Amino acid sequence: MRAPFASDPARARGRRVREEESTFRSCFQRDRDRIIHASAFRRLKHKTQVFIEHEGDYYRTRLTHSIEVAQVARTISGALGLNAELTEAVALAHDLGHTPFGHTGEDALSALMAPYGGFDHNAQAIRIVTHLERHYADFDGLNLTWETLEGIAKHNGPVTGDIPWALEAYNRHHDLELHTYASAEAQVAAIADDVAYNHHDLHDGLRAELFSTDELAELPILRDNFAAVDALYPDLNYYRRRHEALRRFFGVLVEDVISFARTRLAEIDPQSVTDVRMAGQTVIRFSDPVFQDLKVIRAFLFDRMYRAPSVVKMRAEVTQVVEELFPYFMAHTDHLPKQWRKDVEEVDSETALARIVSDYIAGMTDRFALQEHERLIGR
Question: In CATH, what class is 23-171?
């Protein structure tokens, strides 16, 4: 049953460019479908989650991560009586703005763009779905509903203070009410992101042999998961044992979010989606005990995985790729693709040019960035 505070497609605030809506798809379903068919979504297949895309076919990429986030989000959304299509749309789009090489590439590009307004991957996602995707005859971007754009922009909470230039530029023309919290659907997408990466980064770290199963079995939550598996399946082989324990860990996180959200929603008693936005707090989150346990697990991952010598070495190498591609394209705009050179012809400042170069590099996949670096710079 749909909750009273769920987003209702029949009451959606519409699209910036008016369109005739589908007779067989809701507006939120249409948003989700447009995101899936976007070029930027396909490129996530070859963009880093933790390990650089070419390091192994097994490891998660931004695409597989986004699919897992959408699955978790849909489960939580259904349990809370929310609109699953809007939830899934935000979940699938949440990482569209990521650069090649994940957060390493973003850090490098952000430093390079500091004189020109900076770079933020969440704001870049808005730029992609409102400007950079150019497939439709009547508009740039995907012309998503206000609710989906709001969710992409502020699924992590209100955006205040120094607003990233790309988000501020769009918000001037289409007010996304950045000072408020997002819908419950967008909040679900945000917490689903946390659930997914806490789970799959442990999988990938084990696969990369950055830590052992025995070490995982000493961590909070996981300690109980492994004990339960060992009690039920004392002769289980090591591979199935760790997968069964991690499956249970995954379940603990999802169940905790649903249970805590139900408690908070009962206390707040929102009667509309506006009530959720104006609640003054994130409603969909982990309980405090689980959040504290996850801080211990995250510290373990930072020490043993994200800052592992092999990962740090690769981070340094790909940082150099971004740091050398940016000034190269700033100085050699004739080496940009034809459609990008058309945009360059219209710029009237160095900042405008830098933002075009930033858009181009941010859209690259890992492999394409490496190939272009080798072709153009040769080292």
Answer: mainly alpha
